[in-house]
Amino acid sequence: MMDKYHLFQQSAKEAALLFSSLSTREVIRIVSHLDADGISAAAILIRTLNQLNRRYSISIVQQLSDSLIDQLKDEKHELFFFTDLGSGQIKSIAEKLSDRKLFILDHHEIQEDIKSDNIFHVNPHLFGIEGSKEISGAGVVYTFAKNLYQDIEKHAHIAVIGAIGDIQEDNGFQPLNDEILQDAVRNQKIEVQKGLRLFGIQTRPLHKALEYNTKPYIPGVTGSESGAIQFLHQIGIEPRTGSGWKKAVNLTDEEMKKLVTGIIMKRLDEDNPDDVLGNIYMLPEEPLESPTRDAREFSTLLNACGRMKKASLGIGACIGDRKTKEKAIGVLKDYKKAIIDAMRWYEKNPDKVIRKERYVIINAEDNIPASMIGTLASILSKSNQMKDGTYVMSLARTEENTTKVSMRMSGDQKDLDLRQVVMEITQKTGGESGGHMKAAGAIIPVEKESDFICTAVEVLDKLALEEPVA
To answer: How much is the average pLDDT of 207-232?
Structure first.
């Protein structure tokens, strides 16, 4: 008897066999999500279709809304692939594209398990597997693609990057993702190293990497540039080199030992002072000091491309085109500027922020791009401005006259499902909700913003009373 993991893999195999039986003359219409996972998923599918000499057209979207599905209905394509989205909109897809052949390769919660001869649905939730933790959208596409093109294993690292982008790595992976990781390691695309889990090891000046590091928090260092520089001097590491600021990747073995020991000593009052150490996922074929060398930084690069409406560059970076990869790296500068602009707007507009002890609601209206509003919520939830257990909700308007909502929570609340919180609000006010346990969201009509915020206040006030923070 097969367990749930084998049943899931079998469903991917069956979908691949069905796809193989279809006419090769069809132009395939691909729709994928704009985050790191969605871009990784699209890249794996494109790599596979290229090998099969198939023609395709692709769109990378922020949200699969009813209006977008209406637009797809008006197209002449007969064969659609939805990757890293679709399961939460399956009713609308099934209704409006009932005369098309549809492949949905997703890991989000399923709106409804619809059975139809024209829909081939591959999703871990169908087998009792938690898609927000155990496999990414890119991982689902990779599992499907392995049945069509065995050499896709040489691109397993892209699915790992997608999983890291969706925060599915917790000093290791659960079984399905880990199986993909082993493919990447076996093909020498990823090296798993034990070391200091510090974002920006390859690219940031060491003192800035320490200043911006929030998980884990380093007392007196996190959030303080002067504190970070002083800390380095105290442990005997000169933060400058002859040509500029020193990066973590430039440290000698002896300096790295000093750094690790110093951070642990700073964290002795924490529950797990040594949890700064753990798995680091390096791509050995990528150049040193490049944002494509560390899988975590690569996932940020892909997010930048998606958020800055340059998803094609992210796909090219995944596929391995060197010139496209260089252009994608250039997008990071624009992305960082957009983040700074969003943070400055937040700091200068307290009248647009509802701030209570257990939650913060930010309504940016038209002042921050909708593609950046989730990034703002994520950064704030990880900042030392927010106590652990604080809900962070942000809203911004899209170009389609809707409002995008993003929700995060500060700290590591393991059993909390933000999807349920957002769903409770949208059930009362209208709108489409979705996302993951730790990163949920919604799309609502602009005219419903006030109602949504009032209802969110009611729901979050109630949750604050029910869930006291220890």
So the answer is: 87
Pairing state of beta strands 101-105 and 119-122?
A: parallel
**172-199 pLDDT tens trace:** 999 999 999 999 999 999 999 998 888 8
Q: Is the domain of 182 the same as that of 247?
A: no
Among 258, 262, 294, 290, which residue's Cα sits nearest to residue 279?
A: 294
Q: Quote the CA–CA distance of 59 and 169 in Å, as a whole number.
A: 27
Q: Flag whether 229 is in a domain.
A: yes
Count of residues making up the chain: 470
- Residue 108 within a domain: yes
Q: Which of 130, 157, 188 is the last residue of a domain?
A: 188
Is 372 within 8 Å of 342 (Cβ atoms)?
A: yes
Please say whether the beta carbons of 256 and 297 come within 8 A: no
* Threshold 0.70, pTM exceeds: yes
Task: Classify residue 206: in a domain, yes or no.
Answer: yes
Question: Taking the C-alpha atoms of 364, 369, 370 and 375 in order, what is their torsion angle to the nearest 10 degrees?
Answer: -90
Mean pLDDT of 229-243: 91
- b or e along 344-369 (b: 16 or more beta carbons within 10 Å of the residue's beta carbon)? eebeeeeeeebeeebbbbbbbeeebb
Query: Measured in Å, how far apart are the chain's first and last C-alpha atoms?
Result: 44
Q: How many domains does the chain have?
A: 3
Q: Is residue 344 part of a domain?
A: no
CA distance 183 to 299: 19
Structural domain boundaries, residue 299? 194-339
Split at pLDDT 50, 70, 90, the class of 470 is very low
Strand order, beta sheet including 353-355: 353-355, 359-363, 391-397, 402-409, 440-445, 432-435
Which tokens is 437 given?
């346990």
CA distances from 346 to 31, 96, 110, 455 (A): 32, 39, 34, 22
Indicate the pLDDT class of residue 469, thresholds 50, 70 and 90.
Answer: very low
Q: Which of 145, 162, 188 lies at the terminal end of a domain, its last residue?
A: 188
